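User: Could you go from structure to sequence for me? I need the amino acid at each position, not a summary. Structure tokens:
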């Protein structure tokens, strides 16, 4: 792959063409007539060193939509062995152990639709590979219910489709073209991970934003320098169910938020709050947004006089995101959410929107993960 293969190179190829110019000007008419023939003979001498001589500089890789040429058998044989990943399959209770790149294919099949643009799939492959390598290097087996596994196949870590399912339901079940597309995305980014200061990053991702991603400390407690809030305007026009309205009774709101046993103060309606009647009394349920995060989500909200974070409300009410608005219709509360997910890291639908506009995988990843670099796994493991 032309783009990420640059990561394997560490010296620059220099071209010395200027000294030829004075000599060419001194050539006679006959020499000029022979110039095309000489050029044809010289071109191979120039092109060959680009591939077999000094490699290109290790600049940030430029991802293209062109597929990488298949590796020669000799080169494949010399490649460093892949780390193995042991996945706990939650439905069967079994553990599947497989090479890392095969694991990334299974994650890609579960985490992103095969109909997405190839560059978005590449970006997701790099994110998935980075996530699991960081976990393997740290010996992190948190959230795994049985010994012997590194990770589960659920969204608690990364969703994953088993090799058997890919074989039966994809390859033999009429989705061979989809599988080939996913495998191409994995192949063209083979071995590439994202790093920050030389270490694999926490490559968090989510489905779609409401226009901005979130600073890490505004959803979790830790401020992570590469997980910064950035604009993500692509989702609105292309994401199914971008805005979803949920309907609740007041009693449901009170029960889920643990407010049943609390006295709800009476309050007048204001432009910043939603006021409704309780089921069996004349008490009111004032709702007021107190502050927003950098990513335009609810940071703090007062409901019935009790202050909650947007994340708490999202999780307690089962909302798609913490970017939401409130409304009232009769005795019902209407909550409309925008986007889907925690909002930290890469937006998958945003990545697809960028790719539709011509964005490359490198551009996508560097947009959603601030200040990151790209590294080959083999290079990192040597350290």
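Assistant: Here is the amino acid at each position, in order:
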């Amino acid at each position: 792959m032309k783009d990420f293969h640059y990561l394997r190179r560490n010296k620059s190829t220099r071209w010395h063409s200027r000294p030829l110019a004075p000599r060419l000007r001194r050539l006679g008419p006959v020499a000029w007539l022979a110039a095309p023939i000489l050029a044809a003979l010289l071109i191979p001498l120039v092109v060959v060193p680009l591939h077999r001589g000094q490699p290109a500089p290790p600049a940030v890789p430029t991802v293209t939509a062109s597929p990488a040429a298949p590796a020669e058998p000799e080169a494949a044989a010399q490649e460093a062995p892949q780390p193995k990943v042991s996945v706990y399959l939650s439905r069967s209770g079994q553990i599947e152990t497989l090479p890392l790149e095969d694991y990334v294919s299974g994650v890609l099949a579960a985490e992103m639709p095969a109909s997405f643009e190839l560059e978005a799939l590449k970006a997701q492959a790099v994110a998935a590979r980075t996530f699991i390598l960081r976990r393997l290097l740290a010996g992190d087996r948190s959230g795994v219910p049985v010994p012997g596994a590194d990770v589960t196949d659920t969204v608690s870590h990364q969703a994953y489709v088993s090799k058997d399912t890919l074989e039966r339901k994809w390859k033999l079940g009429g989705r061979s073209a989809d599988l080939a597309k996913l495998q191409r995305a994995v192949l063209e980014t083979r071995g590439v991970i994202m790093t920050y200061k030389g270490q694999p990053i926490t490559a968090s991702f989510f489905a779609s934003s409401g226009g901005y991603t979130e600073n890490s400390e505004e959803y979790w407690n830790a401020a992570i320098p590469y997980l910064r809030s950035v604009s993500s305007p692509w989702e609105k026009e292309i994401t199914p169910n971008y805005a979803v309205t949920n309907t609740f009774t007041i009693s449901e709101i009170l029960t889920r938020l643990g407010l049943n046993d609390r006295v709800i103060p009476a309050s007048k309606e204001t432009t910043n709050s939603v006021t409704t009647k309780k089921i069996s009394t004349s008490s009111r349920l004032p709702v007021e947004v107190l502050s927003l995060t950098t990513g335009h989500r609810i940071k703090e909200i007062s409901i019935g006089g009790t202050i909650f974070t947007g994340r708490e409300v999202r999780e307690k009410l089962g909302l798609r995101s913490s970017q939401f608005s409130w409304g009232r219709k009769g005795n019902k509360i209407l909550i409309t959410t925008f986007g889907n997910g925690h909002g930290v890291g890469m937006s998958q639908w945003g990545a697809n929107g960028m790719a539709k506009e011509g964005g490359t995988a490198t551009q996508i990843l560097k947009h959603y993960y601030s200040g990151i670099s790209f590294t080959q796994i083999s290079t990192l493991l040597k350290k």
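One structural detail worth keeping in mind: The longest strand covers residues 243-249.
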